[in-house]
Each structure stands twice: as C-alpha cells, then as structure tokens.
Design brief:
Radius of gyration: 35 Å
Helix content: 10-25%
Structural class: alpha+beta
Strand content: over 45%
CATH architecture of the largest domain: Beta Barrel
Number of helices: 6
Largest sheet: 16 strands, antiparallel, barrel
CATH class of the largest domain: Mainly Beta
Number of strands: 26
Shape: elongated
C-alpha cells in the first residue's frame, strides 16, 4: 500500500511537469493560462501532501499491528488458533504442535448372509444386519509431548471402551521419539491386529487374531519406531468388555487379575517412494504370554464360521488354559498398486496341573474350588497340553489409488487419486480387489483323543454342563469342537474417497479334524442308542457380507 502511494505521488509530479512544459509553448498561451496552471500546481501539491500523510499513517498502523501480534504471541492470546481438515476439523495452536484437539469416530453398518450347513452343525442359517461399530472419541496433544486418545463404541446399544490412553513422547533418541504409553490399547502383536479395521482388507481380521484374543488390554508399553525398524514391549492386565473379563470374587472386587507380557520387533529393509510409487518390504515377529490370576476363569478359544461376525462359533475349546504363549511371524510387501501380506502364528496352551482349579461363578461370596477336569481320577493321568497353529495370506490390487505403509508396521490410510464427485462430473474413487486364504488349526491330536478329559470337557453348544464321572460316554451338550477351519475369501472394496468405503466379501470355510465323541443315548444326537460323533467334520459354512463405513 505504501509503495502504491509513493508511485502515485511520482505520477502526479510528472504530470504537473508535462502540463507546465506544454503550457509554455507560446507567449499568448503563457499569458492566458498562467493563473490556471498555477492553480493546478497548487492543487497537486495539496494532493501530494495528503498522500504523504496517508503513507505516514499507514506506517504507524503497520507498526502498531506488528507490536500487537508480538504481544499476543508472547502472552498466548486466544487468537492463537489454526484449523485444519482431517476427516473432521482439527484445532491446534498456531504452530500446529503445542496443542491439538480433534473429534474422531466411525460408523460401520453390516449385513451377513450365511449358510451354516445345518445338517451337520445344527446351527440355523443367518440373514441379519448389525451396527458393527459406532464409535465416538477425541484425540490431541498437550504441550507438545503428551498425546491422548479416548474412544468409546456404542454399537448395538452396548457401551465399550476402545482406545483410551496417554502417551508421552518428549524423550528422543537422536531425532526420533521414544514413546511411553499407558492405558487401554492393542498389545504389540500381529500386523493385522495393529492395522486399524478401517484399513484391513476383509470384513474381519485373521481367524487366529480373534480366536486367540489378540486385542486391547490395560497396560504400559514402551516403543521406538524408525523408518526401517522398530521395537515395542509392554506389560498388561486384563481386557475391557471381553470374554475373559476379570471376574470378581464378590460384586465390586477382583482379587488377582491376569497378567500379560507382549513384545514385537519389525524391520523394513525397503520403505521408500520412487517416482511416485510406494515400495515396501516388511518383516516382523512378536510374542505374548498370559498367566491367569488365581481367582480367574480359565482361558477359552473360539472362532466363528467362515470368519463372519454374525455366524455361530464353529470352533470352541471351552475354558481350558491356565497359561498360554503366542508367537508369530509377519511379512508384507507393497509395490505400487499391488500388496501381499501373510502371517504364521503358534499358540502353546498350558492346562491346569493341580488337583483342584478355581471355580468363581458370578456373584459368589467366596472363592471355591473344583476338580481338575483334565486329570483322570481313576488313573491319575493328566491330559497333554495342546498346541495350535494359524496362518493366512492376503493379496490385493488397487485401481485408482494405493495403500500406504506406516513405519509402526501396519497399513495406514490409503490414498485415493480421484474421489467420487458425480455431481461435478468427475471422479469414481478407488477399487481394491482382495483374495485371502485363512487357516485356523485347533485340532491337536493328543488333546482331541483324550476323550472326556480333553476337548469335550467344557460347556459347548447347545450349552449345558459336561457329564460328570469317569465314564467315557459324553452328553450331547459336550460335543468336542476343537477342529480346523480353512477359509478362502474374495472381496471388492470401493473407496468413494479417503474416508468412505463399501466392502463386499464372499467367504467359504471347510471344517475338519474334530475329535470323536461318544454321545449318550437319549440325546437329540443319539435318540435310540449311543453314537460316535466327529464334531463338525465335513461341514461347509459359506456366505457373503457387505459393509458401509465412514470415519472422521
């Protein structure tokens, strides 16, 4: 503005000079117009003085504004605010680092249609909808170094705390923070567990992740992540809102909670973007050990048919584990639109070895004990500890976008090249084709063949207690369901934009390897005479599922 005023002044002076020279061309003109010219010059000089005053006033105003801004920054004024859009408004201090605050959440509506092979499993077919997830929460940073997240799920009218933790990130090794996290969050295990369900390629994670309860737990963790490698380790208590919740000795009191240790190491020898193409080669390994509290129920392992959330459990060990140890290996690659990932996992389960085990029914006023169901009271022989395996391989191809790798060893939010904008005549989003083969092998020969003192010991479908006594003949309610499920899945994911996704999966599972169970006569499975049932052997569970999701 000041420069413009100066230019105007110079133009006015030049104009006055030109007028004067032209006016002096003849004596007659000089005599006739001298007074008029003098008047014009006086007017221009007055205008120049006024413009000079405006320049001086503008300089004073700019100086005052600079002083006010400096004073506001020094005092932390309320105008120190910046707003950015990241799915939802994110508010932060002007530097974008000192303070941040953002409302976060997601909604996922789902439909499953499942044929559960009723003739074998006795389970009815499924055609049902559900609100799979409906979460609302907040996240942010306080004074640069303290991060917080609190998110609660309200799906299906059940309130469940999900991520809820504080993380201090003010300690650095070189330029990289060392993270100290405390609260409720996922244990450092499995590539697919740590990838948000928003970016998992199929409707559900791998069967071993859910079957072996790799999930959030309350605990403390230290982690360090570089672009090409990372480490994490933590110690945890039990889980919120889960099958293995702490059970009180009496209402309002828990005596001895479960204890979990977990750790993970990752390496990504290739993690780069070359000519606009993401290139990643990743390997990882993790371990988790759990030991139940002295007054807690034994660990249980279940999985739903064909990896559908609304299907019945086709694998169910009942409560068998006093301790367990998980270890897993991970690998993934991303090369432009193509990705391939896989994991192999192993679970060692330690059965209780004492003569008596805790028995803690809800609301009991005192701790009681029960006979160990894995020891034959006639022979004193203890059932061998079972070992289980699980693995999967997933391949995807992206059209109109690409995946992104997070240095913490997981997939991150994908990039969509042309978000859907039909009303503007352009953009169709991104399309991802998915193929997955998922195996959960919970058919341990020694455990399955232990008869009444092995897999068929615990409460199974349709849900009454196992037959007591030393007889090898079991009631139908205790049919052994420790089997193997091999599932293949094909799917299409349509990303309308970076925050909205429609999912379509077809899934089919073959069941095998269940224990032979002698069923007593007079039951629904053997109405006339004793029979031998091979669990759900040769059953085939298949169907399709659809999901619409949005997050912010």
């Amino acid at each position: 503005m000041i420069g413009g005023l100066r230019t105007t002044s110079r133009h006015l002076l030049a104009g006055a000079s030109v007028i004067g020279l032209l006016a002096m061309g003849t004596p007659e003109a000089k005599a006739q117009n001298m007074q008029e010219i003098q008047a014009q010059i006086d007017q221009m000089q007055a205008t120049i003085k006024a413009l000079q005053k405006q320049v001086q006033d503008a300089k004073a105003q700019a100086s005052a504004a600079n002083a006010t801004a400096a004073d506001a920054a020094a005092k932390g004024s309320d105008i120190d605010l910046k707003v950015a859009w990241k799915g939802a408004p994110q508010f932060s201090s002007a530097d974008g680092k000192k303070f941040t605050f953002k409302v976060r959440g997601r909604v996922e509506a789902e439909y499953d249609h499942v044929n559960q092979d009723t003739a074998v499993t006795t389970y009815p077919d499924v055609s049902a909808t559900e609100l799979r997830r409906a979460r609302l929460g907040v996240e942010g940073v306080v004074y640069y170094d303290v991060k917080y997240i609190l998110e609660v799920d309200f799906a299906n009218d059940v309130v469940a705390v999900k991520d809820a933790y504080l993380q201090y990130q003010g300690v650095k090794i070189g330029d990289t923070p060392l993270y100290f996290r405390a609260g409720n969050f996922r244990t450092p295990n499995s590539f697919e567990l740590l990838t948000s369900e928003l970016f998992v390629d199929t409707l559900e994670r791998a069967a071993f992740v859910t079957g072996w309860q790799l999930d959030r737990q309350v605990g403390f963790q230290v982690s360090y992540w570089q672009d090409h490698w990372g480490l994490a380790a933590g110690i945890f208590g039990d889980r919120f809102n889960a099958a293995n919740n702490p059970q009180p000795l009496f209402p309002g009191f828990t005596g001895d909670e479960d204890v979990t240790f977990a750790a993970r190491a990752t390496v990504a020898p290739i993690n780069r973007q070359l000519n606009g193409v993401n290139q990643v080669l990743f390997f990882g390994a993790s371990v988790r050990t759990r030991d139940i509290g002295d007054d807690q129920p034994l660990l249980q392992y279940t999985q739903r048919g064909a990896d559908f959330h609304l299907a019945n459990n086709t694998i169910n060990t009942g409560r068998i584990g006093k301790e367990d140890t998980f270890w897993g290996l991970e690998a993934a690659t991303l090369w432009g639109p193509f990705s391939l990932q896989g994991e192999y996992s192993h679970l060692d389960v330690d059965l209780p070895n004492s003569a008596l085990i805790p028995s803690n029914p809800p609301g009991a006023a005192q701790l009681s004990t029960a006979a160990n169901p894995f020891i034959n009271p006639l022979t004193g022989v203890r059932t061998p500890d079972p070992e289980y395996n699980g693995w999967y391989v997933t391949g995807t191809w992206f059209f109109g976008g690409h995946k992104n790798y997070n240095k913490e060893g997981k997939w991150d939010r994908p990039t969509i090249d042309n978000p859907l904008r039909w009303n503007e005549g352009g953009g169709w989003g991104g399309l991802e084709l998915v193929g997955k083969y998922d195996v959960l092998d919970m058919s341990d020969a020694s455990f399955n063949n232990a008869g009444k003192f092995g897999c068929p010991t615990t409460r199974l479908y349709p849900g009454l207690a196992a037959t007591t006594g030393a007889s090898a003949t079991i009631g139908a309610s205790s049919l052994g369901l420790c089997g193997e499920q091999r599932t293949w899945i094909v799917g299409v994911n349509w990303y309308l934009n970076d925050y909205v996704r429609l999912m379509f999966n077809y899934s089919e599972a073959d069941l095998s390897g269940y224990p032979l169970t002698a069923v007593a006569s007079g039951t629904s499975l053997a109405p006339d005479a004793p029979a031998t049932i091979a669990g759900f052997d040769n059953a085939k569970v298949r169907g399709f599922g659809m999901r619409a999701q949005v997050d912010w």
